[in-house]
Amino acid sequence: MEGLQSGQAGRWPVMARKGLLIVLAIPMAAFFAFVGFYKAFAPMAELARHGAWTAHVPEWIGRPMGWTELVGAAAMALAAIPGLGRRVGPFASRMAVWLALSQVVSAWVHVTHGEGSALPQNLFLFVTLLVIAGLCRAPANQRGKS
Prior knowledge:
Elements lengths: L1 H4 L6 H30 L2 H6 L9 H21 L5 H28 L6 H18 L2 H4 L4
Helix pairs in contact: 2-4, 2-6, 4-5, 5-6
């Protein structure tokens, strides 16, 4: 209790944001590192077999999307590291928004190819990425309290 009485109570919201960022960003970074690697390097037939939306677009669109996902994964992982959040937070936030928008494109491609079963995953990723974007932009990250 002494910590709460000595002014630590005001840090709970900051600590909760940091904790939530770690809980959400690390698994999402791992996911996007995995799928980004495959979109960037796997044979197109392999992507099609596993239902990647980039298998339905020209390779010159799909391959760079994989690289973008790898960069986004790295940014989210770095933003979750205490001490780095204020420096990479704004970039990680932009990357999370970009990846969220890519889920809209992914959903559209899946629907137009009769793959509606992918929509719940797209919705989950979209919402989670927007939450991560907001957490990376949180005032604590802007003021250097990461």
